[in-house]
Write a structure and sequence with these properties.
Layout: E1 3-7, E2 14-19, H1 26-30, E3 38-44, H2 45-60, E4 65-71, H3 80-92, E5 100-105, H4 107-119, E6 125-130, H5 133-139, E7 144-149, E8 152-159, E9 164-168, H6 177-194, H7 196-211, H8 214-234, H9 249-258, H10 267-284, H11 291-302, H12 319-326, E10 332-333, E11 336-337, E12 339-342, E13 348-351, H13 356-366
Parallel strand pairs: 2-9, 3-4, 3-5, 5-6, 6-9
Antiparallel strand pairs: 1-2, 7-8, 10-11, 12-13
Helix pairs in contact: 3-4, 5-6, 5-8, 6-7, 6-8, 6-10, 7-8, 9-10, 9-12, 10-11, 10-13, 12-13
The structure holds nicotinamide-adenine-dinucleotide (NAD).
Nicotinamide-adenine-dinucleotide binds near residues 138 and 171.
Length: about 375
């Protein structure tokens, strides 16, 4: 049960391997990339306990020596202080231009370690070994790396494509249910933005997938990654089409800022709520039928996911304050908010022509 998706970027092409048992075989995949048999692994403490030894054994199998840094788990790690810890450590391990850094973990580790690799000695290559569903379907592919700033999420970063991605679907088995479902928010996003048949499939297969069905998990990761790879190949640096991958994110980033990037709202949960709000907004603007947002919400609810602002624990700022938080988003161009809206399930498009009142109305009604 193995799938491979190829990202064919000129001079920066790489493969994404998907399937169970890849950690144990990591050495065979990584060895051809190495100039000397030694790698530096960056991970978080939770993932380290569960999967670091498995990866190191897989590397040792092909004679690759590894050294590892364990950072604290959680979104707060995507910060300047931990970036400094990480780059200092890589330098202390004498990682050279020709060496490889391995990011073993969820999107937080992938984004941080990838950015550290992008700036270390003006750029060293890195391998993504994503361990969360979110990282396997989204953040490990496409080369966006970075950290959060006090002004907002992901505002400091670089495009730096990985040299290889190993998505071992067996490691998803150790995720907490909440972390798994947060990643599922990004899976649903792919169906909603560009593949109605995939959304239909998820409506049928979602429960089995969440319950652990391996072939359903592989298929969900493969289809998500293929769609992301196709978009990235056409628009690597987000001059146009790649922005579609931000469906739900304008709402999500404001909600993450409002909840302090903490445990109240995980990124993937915010994406799911944001997708539901984007469809609601699209319906109110007459772009899609009212049945579409209802169908989106029904599926998210059936999966036990957060769907509305009222599902987020604790108080939220009012609608005006949330719209103000959207103003810090990277998707602001010339002061105008860019939204991803939809003409139906699987038919998303980018627009900066959204009346502020309509956004306020959707937010007021969602609380
Ligand atoms: N670069 C991109 O293109 C991109 C795309 C989407 C999201 N992101 C970023 O990804 C981040 C969110 O990623 P995430 O949801 O993976 O968060 P995360 O890295 O914090 O992982 C979530 C939790 O799951 C734990 N975990 C990871 N793998 C595990 C496993 N196999 N078993 C048990 N526990 C495991 C982690 O320790 C953490 O506590 C956000 O910062 C977001 O901005 C980046």
């Amino acid at each position: 049960m193995r799938e491979t998706v190829h990202v064919d970027l000129p001079g920066r092409a790489y493969d994404i391997h998907i399937g169970p048992g890849l950690l144990a075989e990591a050495g065979a995949y990584v060895a051809p990339l190495l100039r000397r048999p030694r790698v530096a692994v960056v991970t978080d403490a939770t993932v380290a306990k569960l999967h670091l030894e498995g990866l190191r054994a897989g590397l040792a199998e092909k004679g690759i020596d590894s050294t590892a840094l364990e950072l604290p788990p959680g979104e707060a790690t995507k910060c300047w202080a931990q970036l400094e810890v990480c780059t200092d450590w890589l330098l202390s391990q004498q990682i050279e231009r020709g060496d490889i850094v391995i990011a073993l973990g969820g999107g937080v580790i992938g984004d941080l370690a990838g950015f550290a690799a992008a700036i270390l000695r003006r750029g060293v290559r890195f391998v993504q070994v994503p361990t969360s569903l979110l990282a396997q379907v989204d953040s490990s592919v496409g080369g966006k790396t970075g950290i959060n700033a006090s002004h907002g999420k992901n505002l400091i970063g670089a495009f730096h494509q990985p040299a290889l991605v190993l998505a071992d679907t067996a490691v998803l088995g150790t995720l907490q249910p909440r972390d798994f479902l947060a990643g599922y928010g990004e899976v649903v996003k792919y169906g909603l933005l560009g593949d109605a048949a995939f959304f239909d499939w998820l409506e049928g297969q979602g429960p089995a997938l969440a319950a652990g069905d391996m072939s359903a998990r592989i298929e969900a990761v493969r289809r998500s990654v293929q769609m992301k790879a196709d978009i990235v190949m056409r628009d690597e640096t987000e001059q146009g089409e790649r922005a579609l991958l931000n469906l739900g994110h304008t709402f999500c980033h404001a909600l993450e800022a409002a909840t302090g990037y903490g445990n109240r709202l995980m990124h993937g949960e915010g994406v799911a709520v944001g997708c539901a709000l984007a469809f609601e907004l699209s319906a109110r603007l007459g772009l899609c039928s009212q049945e579409d947002p209802s169908r989106v919400r029904a599926h998210l609810r059936a999966m036990g996911m957060k769907t509305d602002l009222r599902d987020i624990d604790g108080d939220l700022p009012d609608a005006e304050a949330l719209v103000a938080l959207m103003g810090q988003d990277k998707k602001v161009v010339d002061g105008r908010l860019n939204f991803i809206l939809a003409r139906g399930i699987g038919q998303a498009f980018v627009t900066d022509d959204v009346p502020r009142d309509a956004v306020l109305g959707v937010l007021r009604d969602a609380t």
